[in-house]
Every structure is written in structure tokens, then in C-alpha cells.
Design brief:
This protein has 128 residues and is mostly helical. Helices cover 80% and strands 0% of the residues. It is built from four helices and no strands. Helix 1 packs antiparallel against helix 2.
Length: 128
Amino acid sequence: MLMSPGMLLFDLFDSAVAFFLVYYIVKAKFGGDTKSIARTLAAVFGTITFIAYFAVIVWFNTYPVTVGEDVKMVVYLAPIVLSILMLILIQLSKPHKITVGEEDEEQNENEAAEAAPDEESDESDQIG
């Protein structure tokens, strides 16, 4: 049985999404852009993931497959859903950007907080 061109394109896209998901997770785990071993391991694990995922989806589209449709849908959608969840997690974990108005207020609060303990310590020195 031949694979339809649309399914083959989806297979390539889905395998590429799985590759990049594994690549960036492994690279972050082993040291990021600063270490060459991290980039090498990420490329190796990403390539293995791409090949395995591509082979599984091609196997799902051959004739004597006994895998249910619900299992196929989970395998098809897993990298896409995981990538979306990772992007949401990254966006939620970014620190809050300080605008110009907030920066001035924060500096005033920091200056007031630094000045307050000094005044209290001066008073305690005078009392004691």
C-alpha cells in the first residue's frame, strides 16, 4: 500500500517537530550553547528520534497494521502537543519585563528600603 503525499508531508513535519523538541531539551539539559558536547548529543538524539518517529508513522500507514486508531492519533499528535506545552512553559517562566515607569518606582522603593534601616540603626545607637 502506498502512502498518500499528504500523509508523507505530515510525517516529515511531525518528525521534524519531534527532532527539534528532543534537540532543544537535550541541549538545555547538557549545558546549552556554551558546550559542544551538548550540541553534539542533542543532534545525535534528535536524529535518532527523527528516524524512529518517521519509521513508526510510515509503518502505521502500511497495510497489515494492527494498531488502533486512537493509538495512532496519540502518536501523531504527541510532538505537536508537547511542543505547544513547552512553549507555554517557556513563556510563563520568563521574568517580568520592567518598563521605564516601573523602573523609577522600583528604584524609589529600593532607596526608601535602604534608608529606613539606617535611620533605625542611628536611633538605636543614640539610645544605647
